[in-house]
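Lecture 7 notes. Example A: sequence first, then its structure tokens.
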Amino acid sequence: MAPPVGVTGSDLTRKQWVYAFALVTSLFFTWGFAYGLLDVLNSHFQTVFGIDKTQSTLLQLAYFGAYLVFSPFASLFMERYGYKRGIHLGLSLYSLGAIFFWPSAKFAKYGGFVGCTFVIGCGLSCLEVAANSYISILGSPKYAAARLNFSQGFQGVASFAGPMIASRWFFLGKNATTLDTVQWVYLAVAGLGAVLNILFYFCPLPEITGDALAQEMHEAGILADEQPFLKQYHCLFGLVAQTAYVGAQVAVAALAVNYITEQGIGIDKSQASQLFSYCQITFTVGRFVGVVLLNWVDPALMLTIYSIACMTFALGVTYGPGKAGVGCLFSLFFFESICYPVIFTLGTKNLGRHTKRGSALIVMGVGGGAWWPPMAGAIADHISTAQSYVIPFSGYTIMGMYAVGMVISQARTGGFRFRTVDEIAEKRAELDHSPSPAGGNRESDSVTDKKGTQEFVEVV
């Protein structure tokens, strides 16, 4: 089958743009809900199956390891069949993995939960390659980070809904030591995936292709995608930064319930799970605050500032006593908020024909969530949960190095900038101001053409 003929975000009408944006944004809720439940299940399974913290992080290993394994396949699939079919594949795997939580709960098999979580992770990796890439290129590059941050905000809404449900149903009464409610929750999750699959089947979704994006860049004089993919260094280092950041974020969340209960301030697991949902609310609020800021502040500069804040508060969680440590944990969730979408947009910027491959590479970075939690869990088991937060600190440090590197790279090519800019529009403006081959001025020629067209329309 030939690759689908596509358009760019600028080719869509306002109605088409709003429709496509809203439909794809709905996908962010699916993996936010699954991720929110995952962190609470981590703690719940410690009680039900009698496993230690390190063993419980097998769920994170399966979930995020799936991103590392399946993202390249998702990229190849969408290169050939387009975004819409990639979304169908992702939603099908998501629903399939959720359905098999039922027999795993029925027969109380921890290995079954780990396997189902891997299948769900494969589905979500496919959805993330499609949705993150689609949203970031659905319009002006100037607002790509803000646009993706807004959509990712709905993932945050779902991620705190998961722990809130869990605090009410998983940890109270007899549910604290059984798996009965887990199977019903995941049956509902499977139903959500099936409904979304049906909606996407009956709804047209404009296909945005790498060739169309490349043409738009080349017309503005940006030829970065003519270099081989392995020379797109901002994307390759973006993979490293995303791996480090996601690993740090997942390690923070995976042990948050344990950390809160061990701070000696009289909080049990049910209350800690509820506080964890408030942490996720803080994260979500941070996302929407980031949307406003990223409309004005350069994404690379913003990521640098937030990286420093994350490093600072990670150390605060490690060494802060009692309520001070919990306060640092809340602050850490706030400053984590913009990191994933900003790294994604910086890493996939100006990739043109390499866009889908680059998107898959950055999404592979989510696999970092499989590495950092076991390291943090081992420290939590042998020393303390508080000391385990030095592992996330290392991840934020790597992310900060990438952010500083991007600021320096931008400064060397176009000067230091505080405000966010549309590079394609700037390049077009430069071309318009340059002399035309006939000795005239491109801008004046363009203006003349536009005036002539307007006058013609008015006469008609």
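Example B, a different protein, same format:
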Amino acid sequence: LQECILSGIMSVNGKKVLHMDRNSYYGGESASITPLEDLYKRFNLPGTPPESMGRGRDWNVDLIPKFLMANGQLVKMLLYTEVTRYLDFKVIEGSFVYKGGKIYKVPSTEAEALASSLMGLFEKRRFRKFLVYVANFDENDPKTFEGVDPKKTTMRDVYKKFDLGQDVIDFTGHALALYRTDDYLDQPCQETINRIKLYSESLARYGKSPYLYPLYGLGELPQGFARLSAIYGGTYMLNKPIEEIVVENGKVVGVKSEGEVARCKQLICDPSYVSDRVSKVGQVIRVICILSHPIRNTNDANSCQIIIPQNQVNRKSDIYVCMISSAHNVAAQGKYIAIASTTVETAEPEREIKPALDLLEPIEQKFVSISDLFAPTDLGTESQIFISRTYDATTHFETTCDDIKDIYKRMMGSDFDFEEMKRKKNDIYGEEEQQ
């Protein structure tokens, strides 16, 4: 996905782009696999899917589970590039948080918050005060700080200021600010406040939850941006084996494939193409589960997210569950896909993810993957090879978009600017034709 978005952006910027993929489908790691038979093959499961799974063609199973924040950076990229015309989205029905072995709906309205059994009455009042403070907080207006220094005061101290208890802190940090660990507590509060604002603003857009999901699966996203690149003259080659990245005097000059060299000045790729220029920074376990029932205690939602804060299960990082269903054209009628994921912390990753799988029982079929996470050791300054990071365990695309903006800055020497992109589109198409 990062490479597809960048190829779209670079094409709009007037660059000549050649996009090669060794796979026969778009999106690499962030593809949606169809038909279901291919998923069985990919995970080396014997035999074929049972007839109870319906038609293989009705399935589009994401390899990496993520939702889009309604007001987040990826939605902005989709809107600014107008890639939204190739996609249809649905709002995810609810977000849930795990506490003491049970799951509770993350309140999405004031009425829900007041009725929620996540916290007691006095706690609710203090929490409401805190939310009002966050909503009014403006980092450019010190009048809204109320004695907090956004660059110095830690989030732990902000929670103290509003006298919020541990349960509320857990739920705010992990289900609203969407942190995977508790490291944020001792960092300056500005980023956390902005994350809670993003959650609230995303929630305000559609009301049920702050998350969106594309019909036919996340694999539609890279395809949309590949189409954008093609409109602006980019060339796309699927099924193209990469034999060698040609480097002269420490700088990339081309890519060799099937005996020919395509020459280039800059190259963008994922870690799997350049194992000598990346280092392993961790692992993520993901378990794709096929169910014939909605998840218990979610009011039979046909889509939801469940967050298991690390404190609740004595871990350092959260466990996530993303669930979608036939309502999103990704599964056969009456079937549900739930994907559990977390950052690996021990030598027994499957035990670590068990609390999530227990919520999904009975599971008809599961597909387990453990992926290494890589980050570039070469930032591309000399080599002009720009390497994306592996997808982390987060269940939204904010970190992915940060990576895209980072690569853009290293390539172009300037910050990625949505407004400028809009202007460039107008230069090429002209105002009249767009109306």
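Note on Example B: The two ends are 29 Å apart (CA to CA). Confidence is low (pLDDT under 50) at residues 431-435.
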